[in-house]
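Structure in, sequence out. Go:
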């Protein structure tokens, strides 16, 4: 009996030894050298040039719109005759009507009315966002910021361009994407971006005509003559808006129910097509600017100052919205965190997609349109970075 127990114990020890991994290296195995502190050398290496190039291309692909804006301006500077008014692109037809109509048709096609139904009831948040971006910001820039900068010596057309930016509604895409990424109220962001764009079609042209001193006929007359000139300008603006904005937007909404299944299945790049069309508008705009010699070297310093002013304004807007929504200094009860995030993005951002076409309609053939639109072209990338 004792012999059988001893044999079982020896068998058990043999199995344990067999199950224990070998302490000696196998033939052909490579032992990694150790450092002086006897710790294994790290297996991580510096990224190869191919990996660095791949990462760089991925960043460019993600921010292709900003890269496209830079390339469009550079292309217009290199060959302004291509997109000038009398150039081969015929911008008075292809840009003034076709490109703008395509942008708003795609906006109507991509707008989901059913997504907005659940967010309509949040009236306090919507009123705060729309009132801030379409009333408070234009008044603040028109009557405080622009006069101060003009007296300080900033170019007149850059000051008026800042006022024009202040009159614009929030963007449809970027505010929603950033709100979702930050964990905010996505439904409210969708509603405010869509409703703000629709409201901006009506309100923004009126504010641009009333607040931006573009040097037209209404600027040189007073009293009844100024009122008649403003009404005539508004009549012309709304006629073109009806043709190039309202009808395409309506057609896009009418076509969406018939194409909704295909849109959900195929997911066509509607936003990318619209942004690429916008690059054509930017290119032809700066072709006119550079062919007219409206940007002299003496204004380069003013453009740099304008960039700093745009950055400062956005920080002021973000701070003001945060104080309004997240503290008890104005409201008795702060808004929920999701609504605060939504308000921060929707109330401080401005739409490049809507802004350039509407400004082209309100200020057609303006000799300084490149300077008028420069603050908006600066505002867009800065708001994405912030």
């Amino acid at each position: 009996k004792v012999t059988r127990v001893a044999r079982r114990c020896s068998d058990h020890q043999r199995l344990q030894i067999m199950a224990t991994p070998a302490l000696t290296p196998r033939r052909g195995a490579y032992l990694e050298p150790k450092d002086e502190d006897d710790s294994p050398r790290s297996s991580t290496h510096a990224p190869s040039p191919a990996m660095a190039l791949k990462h760089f291309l991925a960043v460019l692909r993600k921010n292709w719109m900003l890269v496209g804006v830079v390339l469009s301006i550079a292309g217009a500077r290199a060959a302004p005759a291509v997109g000038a008014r009398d150039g081969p692109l015929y911008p008075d037809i292809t840009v003034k009507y076709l490109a703008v109509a395509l942008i708003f048709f795609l906006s109507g096609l991509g707008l989901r009315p059913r997504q907005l139904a659940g967010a309509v009831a949040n009236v306090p948040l919507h009123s705060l966002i729309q009132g801030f971006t379409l009333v408070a910001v234009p008044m603040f820039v028109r009557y405080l910021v622009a006069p101060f900068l003009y007296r300080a010596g900033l170019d007149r057309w850059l000051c008026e361009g800042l006022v024009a930016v202040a009159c614009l509604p929030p963007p449809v895409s970027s505010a929603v994407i950033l709100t979702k990424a930050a964990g905010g109220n996505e439904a409210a962001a969708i509603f405010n971006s869509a409703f703000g764009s629709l409201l901006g079609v009506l309100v923004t042209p009126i504010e641009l005509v009333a607040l931006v001193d573009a040097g037209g006929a209404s600027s040189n007359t007073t009293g009844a003559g100024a009122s008649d000139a403003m009404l005539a300008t508004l009549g012309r603006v709304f006629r073109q808006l009806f043709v190039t904005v309202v009808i395409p937007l309506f057609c896009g909404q009418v076509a969406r129910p018939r194409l909704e299944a295909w849109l959900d299945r195929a997911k066509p790049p509607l936003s990318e097509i619209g942004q690429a069309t916008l690059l054509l508008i930017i290119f032809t705009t700066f072709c006119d600017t550079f062919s007219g010699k409206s940007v002299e070297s003496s204004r380069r310093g003013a453009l740099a100052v304008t960039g700093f002013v745009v950055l400062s304004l956005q920080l002021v807007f973000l701070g003001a919205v945060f104080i309004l929504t997240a503290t008890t200094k104005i409201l008795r009860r702060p808004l929920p965190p999701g609504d605060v995030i939504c308000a921060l993005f929707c109330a401080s951002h401005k739409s490049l997609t809507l802004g350039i076409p509407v400004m082209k309609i309100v200020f057609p053939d303006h000799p300084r349109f490149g300077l008028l639109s420069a603050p908006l072209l600066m505002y867009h990338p800065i708001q994405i970075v912030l």
